[in-house]
């Protein structure tokens, strides 16, 4: 699903009105009626006080339509007009008159912070102050209203956007954003819904199809692409009947050190579960017995050193190398990594201490094979690209990094981002149970398996992140968020592939 900018959404509204021969007021009625339907489904006529805060633009117009329909359905509704300007949108005025003609209790005008109404725990608040068009800081007294709503403990439903949040720009005052319990947005998701700094304000999210022009939506260039099951399924290449293990690539997992052999075991397991035809592990000598016992499907080569990697030498031609998990950052290991980079030319998957080595030794970045995949969590990313003032600057810096070094950058998080110089993809699978030791090692193995099977690096990253998250979701269904361990994620990678085609899930204990 595409993520579009605020400007593009306005263009879609305008084109829809022209092509469908409707008025902007009719389009507003259509959208707001769908919001009313969702609220009515949840409240079911319950005698809960509903307090609707409407701005004086089109988002406020949506709120007025919802308020009018809730009044008609018999709810206890109070509408407040947040009068932050003398200017009103035409559609706001139309719906303001409709509400006045319907109700004996006209909307209450709010003009200053000392007029803020009482909001109680148990109230149902509808936020319709500002929508996708917001492009400036809130007036001081409106910011005070936002803080008043947030402090109330009421359930807050935001229409289109939590007020104070901008669709595709940073917000200076994060305390002046509505912290919604639930957000109902229109037609397409917005970038701010998925960024670490702003996503928590959205709460649970629902996107309603309000019938905007499908041709425009199809042709509009995306600011980002949201990856769900349909998008992931389109990336998957099914196996052919007449193939063999050599068809599906040889992945070499290089990593581990004394006390951290489990990391390469997890990664290799994931690579096998994600379809790698052959997996070899290169580890210190201390890992040999452990790996041969724990994972008989994998081959093992050992470094001359017992506890760390010092001389990465192998007599094979792997289709992909994954490096960094559990290796540490000893000088001998850094030197061995440098020699590996100088002689290996195929795309690599680099994680964990591999990233730390790169950030401390910037000259090694120039040696990265083109198309390599780097998988940092936020702190590792900061060490690679430098600090940022907000998530939008972070993404710009990440794009510049991928362009300079010709790599794919995977930024881990609640919503994992895949970044290239031109494209941005946001993953939708995964859950809090995956915040567990070894989860990233599993992802490294999945990515290595896909690259080894011939998936181009970007395609492998998008699909691999989706499958990794889905495997975690399947594991959490069985073991709970708290009960998931990284091995469960690795073992359920195959079940995640099954799920692409809506086959009955197979959980493996």
From TrEMBL:
Keywords: ATP-binding, Isomerase, Lyase, Metal-binding, Multifunctional enzyme, NAD, NADP, Nucleotide-binding, Potassium. Its EC number is 4.2.1.136, 5.1.99.6. Residues 228-500 form the YjeF C-terminal domain. Its cofactor is Mg(2+); K(+). K(+) binds at residues 59, 127, 163. AMP binds at residues 412-416, 440. It catalyses: (6R)-NADHX = (6S)-NADHX; (6R)-NADPHX = (6S)-NADPHX; (6S)-NADHX + ADP = AMP + phosphate + NADH + H(+); (6S)-NADPHX + ADP = AMP + phosphate + NADPH + H(+). Residues 9-218 form the YjeF N-terminal domain. One of its GO terms (biological process) is nicotinamide nucleotide metabolic process. Belongs to the NnrE/AIBP family. Bifunctional enzyme that catalyzes the epimerization of the S- and R-forms of NAD(P)HX and the dehydration of the S-form of NAD(P)HX at the expense of ADP, which is converted to AMP. This allows the repair of both epimers of NAD(P)HX, a damaged form of NAD(P)H that is a result of enzymatic or heat-dependent hydration. Homotetramer. This is Bifunctional NAD(P)H-hydrate repair enzyme. It comes from Salinimicrobium profundisediminis. The lineage of its organism: Bacteria, Pseudomonadati, Bacteroidota, Flavobacteriia, Flavobacteriales.
């Amino acid at each position: 699903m595409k993520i579009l900018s605020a400007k593009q959404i306005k263009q879609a509204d305008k084109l829809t009105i022209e092509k469908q021969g409707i008025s902007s007021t009719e389009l507003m009625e259509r959208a707001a009626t769908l919001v009313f339907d969702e609220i009515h489904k949840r409240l079911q006529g319950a005698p809960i006080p509903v307090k609707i805060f409407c701005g004086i633009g089109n988002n406020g117009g949506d709120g007025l339509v919802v308020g009018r329909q809730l009044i008609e359905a018999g709810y206890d509704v109070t509408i407040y007009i947040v009068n932050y300007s003398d200017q009103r949108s035409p559609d706001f005025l139309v719906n303001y008159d409709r509400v006045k003609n319907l109700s004996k209790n006209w909307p209450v005008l709010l003009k200053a912070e000392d007029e803020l109404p009482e909001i109680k725990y148990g109230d149902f608040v509808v936020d319709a102050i500002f929508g996708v068009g917001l492009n400036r800081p809130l007036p001081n007294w409106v910011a005070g209203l936002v803080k008043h709503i947030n402090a109330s403990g009421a359930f807050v439903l935001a229409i289109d956007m939590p007020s104070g949040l901008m669709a595709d720009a940073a917000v200076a005052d994060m305390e002046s954003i509505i912290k919604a319990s639930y957000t109902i947005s229109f037609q397409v998701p917005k970038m701010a819904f998925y960024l670490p700094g702003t996503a928590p304000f959205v709460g649970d999210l629902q996107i309603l199809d309000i019938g905007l022009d499908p041709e425009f939506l199809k042709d509009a260039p995306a600011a980002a692409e949201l990856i769900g099951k349909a998008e992931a399924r389109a990336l998957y290449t099914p196996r052919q009947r007449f193939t063999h293990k050599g068809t599906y690539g040889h992945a070499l997992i290089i990593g581990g050190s004394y006390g951290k052999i489990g990391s390469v075991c997890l990664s290799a397991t994931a690579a096998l579960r994600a379809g790698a035809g052959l997996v070899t592990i290169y580890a210190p000598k201390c890992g040999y017995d452990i790996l041969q016992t724990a994972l008989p499907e994998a081959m093992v080569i050992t470094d001359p050193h017992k506890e760390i990697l010092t001389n990465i030498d192998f007599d094979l031609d792997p289709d992909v190398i994954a490096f960094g998990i559990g290796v540490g950052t000893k000088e001998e290991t850094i030197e061995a990594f440098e020699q590996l980079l100088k002689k290996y030319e195929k795309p690599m998957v680099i994680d964990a201490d591999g990233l730390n080595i790169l950030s401390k030794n910037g000259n090694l970045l120039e040696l990265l094979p083109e198309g390599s995949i780097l998988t940092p969590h936020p702190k590792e990313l900061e060490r690679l690209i430098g600090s940022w003032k907000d998530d939008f600057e972070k993404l710009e810096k990440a794009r510049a990094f991928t362009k300079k070094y010709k790599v794919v950058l995977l930024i881990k998080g609640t919503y994992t981002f895949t970044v290239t110089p031109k494209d941005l993809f946001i993953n939708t699978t995964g859950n809090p149970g995956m915040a567990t030791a070894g989860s990233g090692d599993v992802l490294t193995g999945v990515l290595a398996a896909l690259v080894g099977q011939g998936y181009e690096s970007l395609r492998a990253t998008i699909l691999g992140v989706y499958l990794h998250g889905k495997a975690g979701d399947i594991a959490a269904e069985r073991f709970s968020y708290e009960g998931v361990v990284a091995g469960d994620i690795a073992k359920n990678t195959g079940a995640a592939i099954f799920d692409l085609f809506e086959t009955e899930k197979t959980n493996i204990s």
